[in-house]
Amino acid sequence: MVKQIELDLANVPREVILILQLLKKDNHKLIEENSTNIFADIDWNLFIEQAKHHRVFPVLQSKLKGISNKLIPSFVFQNLLLDYKINTFNMLKLSAEMERVSKIFIEEEIRLLFLKGPVIAHELYGDISLRTSSDLDFLIPLEDLNKAEVLLQQLGYEKEDYIKTVLNDWKWRHHHVTYFHPQKQMKLEIHWRLNPGPGFEPNFEELWKRKSKSKLTTYPVFFLGKEDLFLFLVSHGARHGWSRLRWLLDIHHMTEQDIDWGKTNKLLKKYHIHNLGAQALVLSTKLLNSKISVDMKSILENRDSCGLAQEAIFYLERMVNLHTDPVPEDISRYHKRHLISLMSGRQKVLFYLSVLHPYSEDAETLPLPKQLHFLYFPLRPVLWAWRRTRKHALP
């Protein structure tokens, strides 16, 4: 089935195509044989910019070592090598802080599961220097959130996110809060959900039972079990449109892990993200030459996989950064439509029902005493229409 799928890459920049060629598995011989075409008309400054945007420069610098200097300017090697060294130092710092935080939290009887960062780099790439991370993300039980906040403040971290909420919708609409250490220049994200809601996902107790223990550190550091990690990386990458190739490279490395794909297939269906798993495997196979085993084929038996994979190419055609506001209007509109297309039927029903639940904007539009917040339910359509009218009335 995957062999029959062809993705349209006609509008993807040549620099991104070259990056994909370099990242592909077992592609070195093909690059040598077609070097004249592959390296022709490359804007090397843009190549460096794309490599940094997609967060794949650590792997690229190792791939470029075997390429002739006649094909690639020396300043490209030097630039990527410098960033590689800076990233290695940063990953070592994050590794030390990860172990420190894990030790302190466990001593205070707070269980935590690291979601990304050095622990994932070591598990998937075998070398923390080959993956980038800007912060540490970990999941804890919701009931331990206040206790964890006090702990982090004692460690010198300051809370960055102050979530606006009404009727406690933060517990399911949001999924993490950010803390920053001004002296260490280090950021932590505490998650109580894997992804923002509304949506279906395993609870902390399920994830804890299936957890893995990292071999990177001396003190115990726990992270998601292989099947749960695949689910998380798939849902996280899809939610961001696979706008950074690093997330897809993670999936590529996951296909080479010893994973129970039958169990993974059941989990994808249970939590209504089977189409996301199929999309990820199609993209990984077609763009990075990932090998699909017989056990993975059950995941690819999804009628939406090809269409969703092609939709994701939109983000490779542009240098999309969904984390920096303001996001251009055309990209924002496309992304909203794409997120809807990623949803299963039950997810769409849940999403549209959640729109009826009051938002913090409703409380800002019409402040009411807390004991009257229940009135925001019947008032929501009126307040929404009022905001729309005011928005269009403004010059």
UniProtKB/TrEMBL annotation:
InterPro entries hit by this protein: NTP_transf_5
Top-level lineage group: Bacteria
Pfam families: NTP_transf_5 (PF14907)
Protein name per UniProt: Renal dipeptidase
